[in-house]
Amino acid sequence: MKSRPITLTSWFLLFLFFGIFVSAQLLHAQTATPEKVIIDTDIGDDIDDAFALGLALRSPELQILGVTTTFGNTQLRAQLTRRFLDQNGRSDIPVFAGTPTTFNGTLSQHEYAEAGHFVQPAGASAAGFLLDQVRRYPNQVTLLAIGPLVNVGAAIDKDPATFRQLKRVIIMGGSIYRGYDNHLGYGPPSPPEREWNIINDIPSAQKLFTSGVQLYVMPLDSTILLMDEVKREYLFRQGTPLTDSLTLLYHQWGNQTPTLFDAMTVAFAVNPELCPVTPLHIRVDEKGYTRPEPGAVNAQACLSSSSEHFFEFTLKRLAAH
């Protein structure tokens, strides 16, 4: 049986339908509703929180409902956050300080924070703000938790049913198969360790992993992302309000090479292909280890990532004018 040749009319219709399809996809991309997010951060110690917040500001795919500060001197962290947001034209984003906790240390970026101004709204709390937003937007809010989980535990204690109405929680936290090494895959990985955000409030971490909320975990396995001198020099010479803020905070941080652990949570929220996840059952033990064990899946964990792809994505956004 002979096949019929494709006529000029058929080619025209084929290209017409293809053009309509492409146009529809572009229109959808342009009109897609930004994802509502709340960022819970211990900004002011390590420098990666500032880069994470900066990346969120540069991501139109995200609608930042507010920022909450956690762990230690939460008031000073809120002052830092308020100043950072104001200097980058985002005075519209509210900030809430969490309940302060004991912290035997000084914020490395305290000078920047002390030049800021922040007043907590009367009767407000970080956990209360989170729950209020979930009630307002049930099953629509993503929580990006990039610090110790003090506010998360408080929200679960206060109203676990409302907490479960979060769309999802994405955390930087834990150590599944790899600890704090800088081998970048060239040497043998260090064994799992007790990761900072988990061990500074183990009970709250345990509550989160058993809460039933849709949970995505960016552990040490995939977040040891070293920002070398070439990348820093490129970014810091851009001279925008955002890069100037990051430059100042970097120098107050006082170390040399940042590891952008926390920024992966934001990158993943925008582009999950940057950190493919594996379904696991993870138990937070009494010492703060995050142990993969047999059982029903309670988390999607990213166990490896491409530093090259991450920085290609992140630097383009942070450097944008």
Question: Your description of this structure?
Answer:
The protein has about 325 residues and is of the alpha/beta class. The chain has one domain: Ribonucleoside hydrolase-like (Inosine-uridine Nucleoside N-ribohydrolase, Chain A). The protein has 14 helices and 9 strands. It has helices at about 10-30, 50-55, 75-85, 110-115, 125-135, 150-160, 160-165, 195-200, 200-210, 220-225, 230-235, 240-255, 265-270, 305-320, and strands spanning about 35-40, 60-70, 95, 140-145, 170, 215-220, 275-285, 290-295, 300. Strands 3-2-1-4-5-6-9-7-8 form a 9-stranded mixed beta sheet, sandwiched between helices. α2 runs parallel beside α13 (about 265-270), α5 crosses α6 (about 150-160) and α6 (about 150-160) crosses α9.
Give the total of beta strands: 9
Computed over alpha carbons, the radius of gyration is 22 Å
CATH topology: Inosine-uridine Nucleoside N-ribohydrolase, Chain A
Rough outline: globular
* CATH second-level architecture: Alpha-Beta Complex
* Side-by-side strand order of the widest sheet: 3-2-1-4-5-6-9-7-8
User: Which CATH class is shown?
Assistant: Alpha Beta
Which structural class is indicated by helix and strand composition?
alpha/beta
**CATH homologous superfamily identity:** Ribonucleoside hydrolase-like
Pattern of helices and strands: HEHEHEHHEHHEHHEHHHHEEEH
Low-confidence stretches: 21-30
List the total number of helices.
Answer: 14
- End-to-end distance, in Å? 61 Å
Largest sheet: 9 strands, mixed
Helical fraction equals 40-55%
Mean pLDDT: 92
